[in-house]
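User: Here's a chain of 147 residues. Predict its fold as tokens.
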Amino acid sequence: MATSIQQRLYPFSTCYGCGPANSKGLQLQSFEEGDEVVCTFHPEEHHSNGMGTLSGGVIATLLDCHSGAAVFVESARRSASGTEFQPWVTTGLEIRYRLPTSMDTPSELRARIIDAEADVMAVQATLRIEGKVRVQAESRWVRIDWK
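Assistant: Prediction complete.
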């Protein structure tokens, strides 16, 4: 089985959505597929909004963190080693909830870079169920330098 982007590039992360080192988090596992990154999310009862669909906050976290996987892959590609981790953070996230998101069917997440500069990237992402787009997102990311 292939190693996820999260395990390969930032296994130390405790991020709630995508951190492999956070046992209570969502544990997203994203994989490269052409110019996109893809992930399947299986909702659990505690991800509900209380009315039978996936919580909007959980959806926002899913799309934000999955978009991050696309950013970190692109950033690693640009590094001298081709695998170096560089920290990036979200500076903007715009979400369009188009259709209700069922709890009883896995969600497919897809994200791709739409603009990339040295220190800023933009990402488009979707959450789909059975091929139908339920939620769309655009995010903006900036590289941070801790020095």
